[in-house]
Specification:
With 488 residues, this protein is mainly α. The protein has helices spanning 8-23, 29-50, 59-62, 82-101, 110-129, 133-154, 159-187, 195-199, 205-222, 231-238, 241-251, 253-266, 268-294, 299-319, 323-354, 365-368, 370-383, 390-405, 407-432, 449-466, 469-474, 476-487; strands spanning 63-69, 74-79. The protein has a domain at 268-488.
Length: 488
Amino acid sequence: MFAAVDNFPALLIWIPLLGGLFSFFLKDAKQAKSSAIVFAASSLLVLMVSMNFSGKESMQLNQVSYEWLSSIGSNFGLILDGLTRTMSLLTAIVFLLVFVLVPFDQYKDANRFYGLMLLTQCGLVGVFMATDALVFYLFWELALIPVYFLASIWGGEKRIRATFKFFIYTFIGSLLMLVAILYMYNKTNATSFGLSAFFNLTITATEQYWLFSAFFVAFAIKMPLFPLHTWQPEAYEQSPAPVTMVLSSVMVKMGLFGLLRWILPLFPLAVKQFNNALLILIAIGVVYASLVAIYQDNIKRLIAYSSIAHIGLMAMGILTLKEVAISGALIQMFNHGVNILALWIVAYLIEKQTGILTISQLGGLAKKAPVLSIFMLIAVLANVALPLTNAFIGEFMIFNGIYQVNKLLAAFTGLSIIFSAVYSLNMVKNVFYGTESEAAALMTDIKGAQVVIFIILTVLILVVGIYPQPFFQMFSDAMGLILNRYNS
């Protein structure tokens, strides 16, 4: 069963799982960090190799179904298709860069810290690859549990309150989803948890409505969408920086991924019934989060509300059910992960050197850290979707789809673009330029591995912005599965 390692999905599960378990037995912090880097780099290497074996003729290398709990009809089903490969690639890049960035001696009991981080990576790629509902739920929880311990052990002063709130929100959502999964399992006469078996179920419109609601609430909490977003700013602020980077760059994509892989194909009648109302509600949330971000005086909270707005926009793109908008949301899921990671790294470096994240107490940092200020400006311009940056093409396609659905809704949601430029550029101006603050004296410019990390992120921002076609080719096969099922 689990012994097979002759395919890409199995390797992507095994590598971080074994890496996480191995890390717990390491006593030296340097060894723990080096081991984490090796395992994260190995996952990225496997994904890069898999790019050359993505055709139909290589299906055996990209799809597996092992006997797991045969008595209840659950197989350990995984698939590495275009959609999954895109998200797994983002996950591998984020974890590798985070491991390289963070000093080995920053956190006490580094072996446990890196071990839990690798187990989180295992859970995330499992969520993205699962084709069995029970396996999907298993990895959904596996991705959550290590984050709970990471945040509650190594977080800020108010970490217990923030972590408990995060746990309660996500637990309620997970419980609703589990109830819906068990209901659908019983509809198969208790024979299968497989995604394909769920696809073939005959369920009434009323059943679809409440099943859709259960799944959607779970995914909306994870993204999070307005008004289920209140756990996020506090959790981001109180979590240790590497955990915040993973939460914001990758983990929130679990909800968006769930919309694409599970909700749209499984509940087409419910999607058709509720998508217009949801588009309006999410649009309100996008504009609301953008407005709140303008008035933030804390860098972390500003980035958190910015992320809420951008995730909401991607959810709108998916719920338009327009191919152009869904394609835009797919590439934007990757691009947002890159851009938001760059912003969090800048916030982390500022806090690490000055101990300050209050925007009004910062200023003139560019004089002491000119290279960092350049990279920050690049990340901000990508965040506001400047043409030729990676976010431009995704947001342009999303707004194209929204415009096709409702012109007024597109105009209203478009206000978030203006607000995004306001809070992003104001942050750059107030933090890096203007009157030099006392905190500026504590700053030194980035060097070594930090420069390399920002170069990698800058290359991703510019290359994807200029030539996004490889990504569209990567997940073109997934588009048919998403839209054909709905249209039929």
